[in-house]
Design goal:
The protein is an all-alpha fold. Helix content is 40%, strand content 0%. The protein is globular and about 75 Å long.
Length: 170
């Protein structure tokens, strides 16, 4: 085995070079992605999440909402999300630039929540939908601080704006 080092180096390069190319290409495509406006003088989107909603995001993760809900409106041809009223346009990478960990979900047993804040009537209707899901009634025992935070997070989930990649269909 005179060429063991050469063989190991070859295997390493065979794995490392394509992996590095994938990392660099995704960084080149998405690395500078940030908030944007649709036109001159328009507000920047996505908007920043208020403080209580940031706490609600932690509640969303800890009680397992991510196990049954997704946060990605699929484009036409890949699902019927827009026809179901989950959103007016498909989700794009820019929608998630302010999130430290993107919560796309992996199963959709419940409705998609990417645009829930735009679909919800008001804060009280959000509390009704949380409380009447039997497994989450425990959030309302005591001071309901976690329930209020979760409701604030759900109301902050909005993709009801145009972005350079996906124009809002009216």
């Amino acid at each position: 085995m005179k060429n063991t080092k050469l063989l190991i180096a070859g295997v390493f390069l065979t794995v490392a070079l394509p992996f590095g190319a994938i990392l660099l290409s995704s960084q080149a495509q998405l690395g500078e992605l940030g908030r944007a406006s649709v036109g001159e003088g328009e507000p920047l989107f996505p908007s920043r999440v208020p403080g209580l909603a940031v706490q609600g995001r932690d509640v969303y993760i800890s009680v397992g909402c991510i196990a049954c809900h997704t946060q990605q409106v699929r484009p036409a041809g890949q699902g019927s999300d827009i026809a179901r009223g989950y959103g007016a346009r498909p989700s794009v990478a820019r929608d998630y630039v302010l999130q430290p960990q993107v919560l796309l979900g992996d199963r959709r047993l419940g409705p998609d929540l990417a645009n829930y804040g735009a679909r919800a009537k008001d804060l009280s209707s959000v509390h009704v939908s949380i409380k009447h899901k039997g497994e989450f009634a425990f959030l309302y025992s005591g001071d309901a601080e976690r329930a209020n935070a979760l409701a604030a997070y759900l109301l902050s989930l909005r993709q009801d704006y145009s972005s350079p990649e996906a124009k809002l269909k009216k």
